[in-house]
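# nightly structure sweep
# worker-07 picked up a monomer target from the shared queue
# config: single-sequence mode, recycle default, output format = structure tokens
# input follows
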Amino acid sequence: MKIKEEIQKAITEMGFVDLTDIQKQTIPLLLQGKDVIGNSHTGTGKTAAFGIPILEMIDFDNPVIQALIITPTRELAVQIKRELSSIAKYVENCKIVDVYGGEIITRQISALKRKPQIIVGTPGRIIDHINRKTIKLDHLKYFVLDEADEMLKMGFVEDIETIFNTTPKEKQTLMFSATMPKPIVHLAKKYMDSPEVITSVGDDLTNKDILQYYYKVKRENKTEAIYRILNIYRPNLALIFCNTKAKVDQLTQELIDRKINCDKIHGDLPQTTRLDVLNKFHNGIVDVLVATDVAARGLDIKNVEAVFNYDTPEKADYYIHRIGRTGRIGNLGYSFTLVSRGEMRRIDDIERLTKSKIKKRNVPTYDRVMDIRAEKFVEQIKVINEAGCLEKEYVTLNNLIQAKIPEDEIIVSLLKMLNSESDSSVTKADINETFTGNDRGSRNSRSSDDSETARFHLNIGKTAGLTVSDMLDFINSNVNIKRNEIKDIAILTEFSFFTVPKSYSSKILTYCKNKKLKGKRVSVQVSRKRR
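# output follows
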């Protein structure tokens, strides 16, 4: 397979050594002009699989749109554009534009006026531009649907058909999909010309390069469990998935309180914020990213060493997409799933779907974590000492010695101070649970959990600008309660809910009553149980 020197130079700089399975199968077929259906999971190198041949075949002296790539999410559109731009780094006159909702359309119109040959975008915004005649597909040669099954789930089938009907009949079409449901097969039959079907999913739905573990812990101890596992494994980059936006907000703040370098991403954040956070994580500025499943599909964030399921996924296929963020293209990855009472049935569902076993492990003890932290501290001291430039620190040390404090006592006191900072919100007890695998979350077990907690209604919500951090600060400032004991926060339009251990009920009702929050007088009431 021969490709342009400019493209070869760029992919060599990007670290390409050997082609992945999907790339080996796809690239030759596309170069031969065939339509292709790729049945492949995220993380197998799909962007390069279609990007290399498309960049090889496009006429960059012709200023018309020749390739259209449709994705289900804005983040994936931005990512594909970034990777294609890297592959086309040395290709003259190559112009690529991404279009998606949530961004001012005038910027995109301005970019489209520069006559790009490749468009990457989401269905709704592409249709918007077609209707405005700012995107014209009369000369389209290459049509790519990425994450087709995800677009199906998101209800984009009609939009995709609308776009198909604006394109020339004679074109080359490529469709990638991790699964092949009937509507995807129908689309293929209707719009593709005798497509070649290639598969690189194998018999195992999960990557063999991912070590998968689960831990039995109470819901209120999940943050502590993540904190301990992070300290033991110390991944360079870690993704933590929660099932709700409110839990993402709460967990992020709890980890920040524990001095974890983390940030968050979910659908309620502005688009510019989401892209900024992803860039920081992609570049290693942020070590830990807390997310909802919006980040589980399609995002090619390289070098993620560990994925945490704070909440056990509600659907088994979500688990596959989540952990697919690690163990990419031959690299070893870790998957850690925290299972509370009533969630074991989900582990059983996942194991049945993936035809693999997830190993049970115990959360490390507090003492083990402190031993690892001490080892890490010694390593850091060695690095700092070798780097030098410690003049200011020697001044402080001399001041301590002049105060007649022995040097060994200075060192031990500093170590104690360091440990006390990290101990401010941790639990030192053994947090492993012993409920049986047969506990399927029956009504009895749920009511038992409910009997230990109390849920409250707050008369303030999103319209007042209330955030999870605001609520945590408000409760924490009025009641002597740890932030990680405030659970299941839900902020709705006009009101909100939160849950605390039942022992705090009277204090919540007494000390939060008639206080002001976001400039409004607070009314706190015990929430009525849902029927």
